[in-house]
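Support reply, case 0932

Customer input (verbatim):
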Amino acid sequence: MAKYMLRRLVELVITVFLIATATFFLLEAVPGDALSERADKLPVESRTALYERYGLDKSMMERYVLTMKRMCRGDFGESFVYAGQTVTGLIRDRLPVSARLGLQQMLLGVSVGLLLGILAATRRGTIVDYLVVGLSVLLISIPHLVFGLMLQKIFAGSLRWFPTIGWPSGSELWLGGWKYTVLPTLTGAFSYIASYARLMKTSLLDVINQDYVLTAESKGLSRAAVVRKHMLRNSFIPVMTQLPMSVAMCITGSFFIESIFSIPGIGQYFVTAVHNQDLAIVLGETVLLSILYVAVIFITDICYALVDPRISMPGVSK
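Our regenerated output:
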């Protein structure tokens, strides 16, 4: 077990390093730089000093080595576009906003999706099943942008039940300002509802005809007891595999939703940084988010192997 975990950790470190390297060289391959627009308006001496400040006067390989050294120390540098803005400050200020939005979307969407999936599987072939399948296809086919604009038009524009834009801040950042979060949460929850409803239905149908289910039914257990005690536990294994990835994805922000509702989250700022070729911000966010993703994958692998007895891990005897 220890050897397996150590090997996986080494693989994850290498993965993060390769992601950082690929991000650096891809941004370097884009013509121009983040300072060109600002530097063109400055005298020659000021322009030279500006490029020296951010290290853009050095060759690409020199910048790569220096960037990797700083990254190993946890220093991702300063924004090229917004003076004084660091990656650490950006994450501290904006990640909680995206995290609250994403967690609310996931909790609502996953809960409703699982319930609909169970309902569709236990009512297979009925009108309920067809309605759930049709709703899932509809929700997963329509982009977030369309849902967001539609909800704004109806509930914020016509009915005026909720604000059009905005997000709670200060002491209300985590547990207040609910009226601002309703429409963005619904907009992002629809995709979770569609995905988890289909996943739960498929997973339940896979176990519904297993021998242990037929045995439980032959013993006289009610349908509800069979579903609750025998079917749900085994059908949740695929759900548990996907759920950690959903958690990782939900707190990284959504550019479209944050743009529609003017939410100051990390997703909107990340796309802006890419457009401005702000290498420090893009690289820092990419590395930090990749660490989050690979850590979730690592935890998922361990949990999956512990929950499912059919999975064997090197160094672990069953």
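We compared this against your earlier run and they match. Two observations from our side: The mean pLDDT is 81. The chain is about 75% helix and 0% strand. Please reopen the case if you see a mismatch on your end.
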